[in-house]
Design the sequence.
């Protein structure tokens, strides 16, 4: 069966510091991968999605970037964090099958101070 | 682009009562409508979904209905239990390969 991992689970970082969040998927090949941000009490905002290695689409211009160095690895990064980057970051995956349901990881809670 | 509106934002019911959450979408070409349940501090989990060629789908106490003409779909939970308390999100997808568009969520509280 497929599983999706995210780490770290929680992170507290000072303003201006770099960021690297990692997401890996097991049990499937060539998944579509997604990064979402969820601010407190808010909905899900799509940040990036990827249909293959090195292929990244950005949905919202911002202080963040994404990379996909391997088929089942998706990384969210920032060179300098802002206070507004605080939130709950979720990675998700889907397949190219017609169903294409998205399955979410456990999330990373980021607090920028 | 697609826009999804979800109502209500909060819903409180007594254990055993039914709960209904409604969503409307703007793009008539959307063809896939999943519902997710998110418990505190966890990622959303898919609970049920429906495609545009079906009007209703049931899974035990959960059902989803779709009205393509009116462009709205609803989640129905019967015989609610305290463990149903969570945030529920609806979503719509225009076509395969594009991302889901989510509603802003409904916080459901079931009191015993």
Sequence:
């Amino acid at each position: 069966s497929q599983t999706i991992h995210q780490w770290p689970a929680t992170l507290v970082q000072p303003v201006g510091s770099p960021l690297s969040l990692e997401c890996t998927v097991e049990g499937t090949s060539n998944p579509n991968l997604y990064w979402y941000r969820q601010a407190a009490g808010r909905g899900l905002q799509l940040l990036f999605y990827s249909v293959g290695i090195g292929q990244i689409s950005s949905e919202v211009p911002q202080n963040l970037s994404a990379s996909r160095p391997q088929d089942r690895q998706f990384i969210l990064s920032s060179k300098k964090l802002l206070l507004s980057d605080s939130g709950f970051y979720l990675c998700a995956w889907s397949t190219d099958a017609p169903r294409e349901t998205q399955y979410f990881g456990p999330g990373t809670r980021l607090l920028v101070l | 682009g697609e826009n999804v509106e979800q109502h209500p934002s909060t819903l409180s019911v007594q254990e055993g009562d039914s709960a209904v959450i409604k969503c409307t979408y703007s793009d008539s070409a959307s063809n896939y409508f999943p519902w997710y349940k998110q418990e505190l501090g966890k990622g959303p989990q898919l609970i049920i979904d429906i495609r545009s060629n079906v009007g209703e789908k049931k899974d035990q106490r959960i059902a989803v209905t779709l009205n393509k003409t009116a462009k709205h779909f609803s989640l129905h939970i019967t015989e609610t239990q305290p463990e149903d308390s969570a945030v529920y999100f609806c979503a719509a997808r225009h076509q395969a390969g594009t991302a889901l568009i989510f509603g802003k969520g409904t916080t459901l509280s079931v009191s015993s």
